[in-house]
Amino acid sequence: MAYLKNIKNLYLIGFVLILFSFFGFYESWKDYKIKERKQAAMTTRMLIKRNLDKSFMLNSRTFPKAINLEKNRVDVQYSFNKTLTKHIKKLLKRYRSDYSSVIVIDNETGYILSAVGYERKGNEFNISLPFSSTHPSASLFKIITTADLIEKSQLSKESVFKFRGRGTTLYKYQLKDKKSRWVRHQSLGRAFAYSNNVIFGKAAIQSSSAERLFDMASDFGFNERLMEEINLSKSNFEMPQTEYSLAEKASGFNKETMMSPIHAAVLSSIIANDGVLNYPRVVTEISEGESSKVIWSPQQKTKRVLEVGTARQMQDLMGMTVKIGTARGSFRRLNRKLKKNLIIGGKTGSITGGVPYGKRDWFTSFAMPKNPSLGKGISVAVMNINVKKWYVKSSYLAKNIIEFYFKKIDPLNDNLSKIKKKDFDKDS
């Protein structure tokens, strides 16, 4: 009996061992299959990115709607608003700058609603210019410098600085504090609104450092890959090595700091989002051609860049640009209802250089409803490149696009009536 009992125990142990081996094999097989699927998804994603990148390198006029992979075809859905893009193209064809690029971003999601490139020669549109990072940032970089000064040096728009000479220049003698009857005073707020290079150069030397400015630029997306689905070239910011170089970089008075029109819109979006960077996205989903099964949907990626208080102060400063500063002329005749119900801010910039070569006229801006229930609105960046002749101000085009968006695409009155109806239904 004892012998039979031992045999039974041996069989039982053997069965348990086989069972454990089976489960171990099953788990290993399951892990292998998961890894295989992940690898296949990564390969598919890599092939898709490669094909999307080809569109930009070939200077294509439109974004590819379908991509042929090794074995099958995939369909690509984009975040573009057709009505808005049609209006922008109509505007660009009317004014015909030598080169133009317009970007519109939804602040809450980071989705790119429109990305249009235009070339006067041939009167043609392309998709490569908005995504190229061969453009000197000019005074747009003052957004980064101001954010650094407010957040880390506790300066405000009321902080006053002395300066000599014209604010549009930046000579070494202007950076020295010297008693003279020609010395003038200007607040940081007005210096931002009027884009005073001298004050920003002096403020960086006195109240910041090369390391701090580099770190803030990195936080704002410089020297970083901003987009997942497209290999957007990085915006470039180099560490200043001398005091004068620090002044040049802080004021944007240099040709080394490069950025893309996409990144220009992102700068305003960060301010509108109370200091949060919503990384830009252009693809909403990619699906298999035959089955329509979604195989990739880019996830929203965010990071905090500024404290809320700093971002709110930046909103005020950028608001001064359109009210009393360098963009006041373009926004003077903004629709009254929109002016009453929107918070609008911006920053201008102009510099000669870059590829394609010419005088760049930049304007980056945000427009968001005063009623927070209506969302965070949009950010608009316009870059015109003028070779021999000036055609239209970038700030004027941005104003026109903002008006069109809040009248035709996402009307404020319609949204207000919807909210009132919801509140009424709740009360009922």
CATH homologous group name of the largest domain:
DD-peptidase/beta-lactamase superfamily
List the helices and strands in order: HEEHEEEEHEEHHHHEHEEEEHHHEEEHH
Quaternary structure of the protein: single chain
CATH C-level class of the largest domain is Alpha Beta
Named at the architecture level, the CATH assignment of the largest domain is 3-Layer(aba) Sandwich
CATH topological fold name of the largest domain: Beta-lactamase
Tally of separate domains: 2
Q: Radius of gyration in whole Å, from Cα? A: 27 Å
Distance between the termini: 83 Å
Morphology: globular
- How many distinct helices? 13
Indicate the mean pLDDT. 88
**Poorly predicted residue ranges:** 416-428
Domain Penicillin-binding protein transpeptidase: 101-374
Transmembrane segments: 12-29
Keywords: Membrane, Transmembrane, Transmembrane helix
Pfam families: Transpeptidase
Describe this structure as you would to a colleague:
- There is one protein chain.
- The protein has helices spanning 2-57, 82-95, 142-153, 188-193, 197-207, 210-219, 243-251, 261-272, 308-323, 328-331, 336-341, 394-409, 412-427; strands at residues 66-68, 73-78, 99-106, 112-119, 124-126, 135-136, 160-163, 184-187, 258-259, 276-278, 283-288, 294-296, 302-304, 342-353, 358-369, 378-386.
- It starts with a helix and ends with a helix.
- The chain has 428 residues and is an alpha+beta fold.
- The chain has a 6-stranded antiparallel β-sheet with strand order 5-4-3-16-15-14, with helices on both faces.
- It has 2 domains: 2-58; 78-427, Beta-lactamase.
- 44% of the residues lie in helices and 21% in strands.
- The protein has 13 helices and 16 strands.
- It is globular and about 110 Å long.
